[in-house]
Every structure is written in C-alpha cells, then in structure tokens.
C-alpha cells in the first residue's frame, strides 16, 4: 500500500493506492506470456501486474484531525485481510506492506510533529542532523515503540476529548505530572519552558500515537 497526502489544484486530498508485487513464481514471465499469446511483441508483465489500483481518494482539509477520519475504514479493511481467499485449490493469504509519499505523509502516519526541532521521524533533533555520530547512535523507533512511548504518561487520554495533539499547551502542573510518570526527576526544572523542553526531548517530536492506532492507543 502506498499513501500520500497531497494538494491538487490547491485542494487537499488523501490518496491511498494498492498494488500487487510481482513474483515469477505466481505470474508469467515475459517469455511465457509471449509464447502463450503467440506474439512477437514484448510485453512487460511485471508492469501490468504492479499497476497501482485506487483504494481511497478523499478530499480533506490539511489538518490532521480531518485526515485521521479515514483511519476507521482502513482498520476495518486490515482486519479483513486475515480472511483467506480460495483460488482453485490454493488459499491466498495477504501480507500488507506499507510505503509512503513525502515527509509530511510519513510524519502523519507515525504520529510525528510536522516541522519544528524534531521534524524527522528518526528522532534526532534538527540541529544535530549534520552530526553523524549522533545520527548513527540513534535507533529509530518502530510504530509499536512509538505507541508505547505515548501511553507511558497520562496526557494522551485527552485524545478521547478530540484533542489531536495531547502534549501541546500543557499547564506547568500537567508537564510535571507527565514527566514524573515517565520517570523524569523534575525537581531541578523550575520553569515551564524547561519542563516543556524536557518533555519534547523525551518524546523526540512524537505528538500522538501512530495514525492507525489513534483511536485505540492501548
């Protein structure tokens, strides 16, 4: 599955495409097709098999809360992938592979903030992107790791009230509670700005659960 959130003629769209990956064990080779079709012209079978098919194309505002509205339909379809399809005497079992478009699409799917000091989902602060030693030492989090990091505190519960970025605009007392729940000693962090910086550093720019787990962070 390939997805992107793009602008077409200054209108925001969410676009999801699906494609079947070619494998010579499952499909004809070019030579086999040429023999079967009794033709001398060359046909690229792989390009035919892997031609993308439209899955979801929806017009949407650019705000994350609007784009997340497509999550429920995607989850329903993911559950149905466990159903086998009988083809002759063969049971077809589907395996889903995800690919993304540009940076904003990846950030949205991973629950990463867009822009700012932690714009990259690798978790390295933007000012340290040129520091190769820092980048090589950082182990990128997978979606499950990111989900676990979100629910270590309690502010994520605000999602149930429709607050899509639960770690933004927290009061000083909320910042202290959030950090303490994550095992951070806040005794030396007296200013709200320092508390916010510490939480941002702990989260590495993660601002919500991954898109596919947004409705059920646990």
Considering the chains and any ligands shown, give keywords for the structure.
218 residues, alpha+beta, 2 domains, four-stranded mixed β-sheet, two-stranded antiparallel ribbon, 9 helices
SSE layout:
Elements: E1 2-8, E2 11-18, H1 30-37, H2 45-49, E3 53-59, H3 64-67, H4 71-80, E4 85-87, E5 90-92, E6 99-100, H5 103-110, H6 132-137, H7 143-150, H8 172-181, H9 192-203
Parallel strand pairs: 1-6
Antiparallel strand pairs: 1-2, 2-3, 4-5
Structure description:
The chain has helices at 30-37, 45-49, 64-67, 71-80, 103-110, 132-137, 143-150, 172-181, 192-203, and strands spanning 2-8, 11-18, 53-59, 85-87, 90-92, 99-100. The protein has 218 residues and is α+β, with helices and mostly antiparallel strands. The chain starts with a strand and ends in a 15-residue tail after the last helix.
- Multimeric state of these chains? single chain
How many extended strands?
6
Number of helices: 9
Number of domains: 2
Helix content: 25-40%
* Rough outline: elongated
Structural class: alpha+beta
For the largest beta sheet, what order do the strands appear in spatially?
3-2-1-6
Mean pLDDT: 86
Q: Return the string of H and E elements.
A: EEHHEHHEEEHHHHH
Strand content: 5-15%
Q: How would you characterize the largest beta sheet?
A: 4 strands, mixed
Q: What is the C-alpha radius of gyration, as a whole number of Å?
A: 22 Å
């Amino acid at each position: 599955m390939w997805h992107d959130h793009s602008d077409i003629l200054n209108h925001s769209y969410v676009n999801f495409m699906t494609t079947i990956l070619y494998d010579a064990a499952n499909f004809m080779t070019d030579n086999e097709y040429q023999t079967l079709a009794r033709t001398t012209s060359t046909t690229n079978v792989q390009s035919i098999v892997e031609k993308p098919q439209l899955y979801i194309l929806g017009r949407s505002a650019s705000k994350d809360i609007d784009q997340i509205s497509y999550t429920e339909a995607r989850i329903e379809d993911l559950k149905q992938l466990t159903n086998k399809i009988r083809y002759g005497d063969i049971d077809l079992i589907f395996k889903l592979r995800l690919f993304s478009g540009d940076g904003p699409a990846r950030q949205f799917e991973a629950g990463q903030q867009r822009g700012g000091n932690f714009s990259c989902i690798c978790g390295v602060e933007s000012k340290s992107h040129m520091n190769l030693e820092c980048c090589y030492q950082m182990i990128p989090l997978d979606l499950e790791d990111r989900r676990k990091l979100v629910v270590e505190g309690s502010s994520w519960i605000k999602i149930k009230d429709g607050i899509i970025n639960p770690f933004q605009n927290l009061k000083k007392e909320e910042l202290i509670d959030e950090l303490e729940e994550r095992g951070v000693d806040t005794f030396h962090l007296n200013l709200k700005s320092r508390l916010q910086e510490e939480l941002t550093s702990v989260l590495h720019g993660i601002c919500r659960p991954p898109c596919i787990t947004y409705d059920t962070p646990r």
